[in-house]
């Protein structure tokens, strides 16, 4: 009986990867050393088989012995071009209403939220300020982080800004965006413009900010905090080209390499869309070309600290390349902050106190010098100034609620950093910031 190589290969792949044969239907490709041997065996095969059979797998005796040079082409199943132009918003809104699969968010008034915030301090944990050295001051800023709006096509469980498709009001205006650019030009110490949201790309000022900043400061690092699925929203079909043409670094959330975990945290269908988006970014050169950085962000699913960043990055790289053919540069691990939607999540599960204890227990003094707030300026959609995006969401503004219209540059060293007990989220373990660990 003639041995069917393709059947053997496919069944082996199914066992090895957990994929079924149709999902993982593979085609051979090889390095140059083996390609000619496989090519001639393929041509021979073609003349011996009917036109309908798969004739690109070499028969018995034709497989080169240099098996380390043989590669298996990645599955095409995840290249979902059909998703581009299809909005996720309706599905997100349906998910927000579906109380059978998700607990309803706790609706709280401003007063209740203030009480909740104070409750963090009443949990019996130590005060963050007791851990700070006397010289805990602000430095010259190197990062300008603009949160340009809270509208998002997703509504993730852990979202510290509580974004969703319902947040249509909170959007940066053209006047505020122009003022931010003016101040950026007056603050040459700033090396990075970090644009976040919501889904910042869905704000009308996003492209204006990026293109103006790129032309005014060719040396500037510009970051787009991208949720990946935004690339498929109608009207965003040219977004990848726009980002590429302006050398924007993409930092994207992907809290796991398994669909179950990602969909649980970020909504049904988000994993499949995220993988399709990452493949499209790779295709454009992101994660491959030096000038087109693509980084991923991991944050824990529940009340635990992230694993070691370097080790997790290795696992992410193996899993994403092996299963989907995805390449990326770095993985950043971020600790969930006990505020907003994640605080509600902990509260519902009666885990807030235990989580705070965990953060305090793992306080690491080595993280203090590189905390984000030391050299970052955070600006809200309305132009208000903050120490970081977390303080922004808590409404902890700079003295007298300063805004971009009250200052001459982003050098804010005269103003004290406003810390509170949520700050333990930045100092636990190896530290946490928008660019991963800090110690
Ligand atoms: S975590 Fe990001 S993607 Fe999810 S709702 Fe918040 S802003 Fe949107
Ligand atoms: S949460 Fe606190 S420690 Fe962390 S960056 Fe903001 S102000 Fe600094």
UniProtKB/TrEMBL annotation:
Keyword NAD assigned: no
Domain annotation Radical SAM core: ranges: 147-293
Domain Arsenosugar biosynthesis radical SAM protein ArsS-like C-terminal: 305-437
Biased composition (Low complexity): 32-55
InterPro entries associated with the record: Aldolase_TIM, ArsS-like_C, rSAM, rSAM_ArsS-like, rSAM_sf
The keyword S-adenosyl-L-methionine belongs to this UniProt entry's keyword annotation: yes
GO MF annotations, alphabetized: catalytic activity; iron-sulfur cluster binding; metal ion binding
One protein family per Pfam: DUF3641
Signal peptide as annotated in the record: 1-18
CDD domains linked to this entry: Radical_SAM (cd01335)
Region annotation Disordered: where it falls in the sequence: 32-60
UniProt keywords, alphabetically: Iron, Iron-sulfur, Metal-binding, S-adenosyl-L-methionine, Signal
Record protein name field: DUF3641 domain-containing protein
Lineage: Eukaryota, Sar, Stramenopiles, Ochrophyta, Bacillariophyta
């Amino acid at each position: 009986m003639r041995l069917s190589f393709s059947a053997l290969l496919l069944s082996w792949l199914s066992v090895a990867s957990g994929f079924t044969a149709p999902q993982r239907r593979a085609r051979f490709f090889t390095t140059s050393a083996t390609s000619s041997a496989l090519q001639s065996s393929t041509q021979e095969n073609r003349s011996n088989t009917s036109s309908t059979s798969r004739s690109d797998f070499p028969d018995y005796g034709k497989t080169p012995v240099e098996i380390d040079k043989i590669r298996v082409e990645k599955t095409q199943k995840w290249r979902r071009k059909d998703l581009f132009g299809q909005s996720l918003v309706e599905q997100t809104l349906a998910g927000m209403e579906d109380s059978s699969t998700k607990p309803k968010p706790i609706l709280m008034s401003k007063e209740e939220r203030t009480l909740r915030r104070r409750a963090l301090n009443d949990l019996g944990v130590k005060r963050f300020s007791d851990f700070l050295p006397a010289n805990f001051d602000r430095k010259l800023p190197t990062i300008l982080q603009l949160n340009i709006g809270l509208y998002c096509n997703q509504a993730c469980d852990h979202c510290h800004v509580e974004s969703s498709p319902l947040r249509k009001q909170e959007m940066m205006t053209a006047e505020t965006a122009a003022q931010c650019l003016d101040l950026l030009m007056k603050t040459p110490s700033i090396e990075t413009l970090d644009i976040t949201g919501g889904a910042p790309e869905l704000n009308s000022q996003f492209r204006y900010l990026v293109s103006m900043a790129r032309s005014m400061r060719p040396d500037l690092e510009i970051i787009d905090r991208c949720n990946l699925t935004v690339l498929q929203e109608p009207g965003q079909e040219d977004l990848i080209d726009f980002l590429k043409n302006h050398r924007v670094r993409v930092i994207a959330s992907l809290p796991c390499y398994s669909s179950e975990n990602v969909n649980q945290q970020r909504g049904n269908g988000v994993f499949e869309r995220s993988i399709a988006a990452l493949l499209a970014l790779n295709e454009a050169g992101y994660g491959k070309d030096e000038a087109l950085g693509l980084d991923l962000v991991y944050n824990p699913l529940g009340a635990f600290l992230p694993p070691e960043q370097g080790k997790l990055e290795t696992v992410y790289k193996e899993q994403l390349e092996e299963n989907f053919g995805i390449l990326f540069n770095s993985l950043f691990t971020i600790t969930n902050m006990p505020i907003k939607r994640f605080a509600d999540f902990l509260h519902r599960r009666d885990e807030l106190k235990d989580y705070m204890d965990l953060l305090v227990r793992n306080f690491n003094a080595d993280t203090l010098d590189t905390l984000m707030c030391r050299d970052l300026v955070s600006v809200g959609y309305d132009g208000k100034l903050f120490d970081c995006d977390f303080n922004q969401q808590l409404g902890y503004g700079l003295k007298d609620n300063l805004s971009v219209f009250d200052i001459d540059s982003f050098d804010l060293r005269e103003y004290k950093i406003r810390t509170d007990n949520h700050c333990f989220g930045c100092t636990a373990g190896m530290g946490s910031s928008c660019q991963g660990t800090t110690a």
